Hints:
By secondary structure, this protein is of the alpha/beta class. It has helices at residues 23-26, 35-49, 66-73, 89-94, 168-179, and strands at residues 11-13, 55-58, 79-82, 101-103, 108-111, 116-119, 134-137, 153-155, 166-167.
Amino acid sequence: MTDLNELEDFYITSDTWFGREQILDIANHRSWSDVFEMNQALIKSWNKSIKKNDIVLHLGNFSWDPETARTVLSKLNGTIFFMQGSSDDALLEVYQEFNNLYILPNDITILPNHDLVLCHYPLSMWPGKDSGTIHVHGHAIYSHKTNLAIEHRFNMCTDYWGYSPIKLTTLKDILNESKN
């Protein structure tokens, strides 16, 4: 398994909710007519950004049901590291069928080489917060919006990032631009 801390760069996303029909009502800005159309659009957007050898960290709430998880995973580019979200039973049921998927072992993952803390849930405190360490999370579609004037925390719900995974270096560029 790849040591994430040793990677030069990688992509991050969360809360894709493949196959969850209710997300079209819950996240009212998902304007697709049905869940099939949403799934196809999310897959297309993912594969437009992610190439075969890219690494993606998915911070939870990937898919609603095992059949959708299996179908979608067979179509996505990249090697994907999953942090378990609040609703990832479907993913856990099928991920071992794929050789490009890994489940991260902890609820909170610290990558000191990247000055980064990963968690499915938004944290109010994290190691290195006071010294500028970045925290990335998912789970919060409507709350905990990214506000870099307050803290170095990014809400990685796909809805906020054009329905596509975002490179860590892009997040760091956004952070640096906010300081100027």
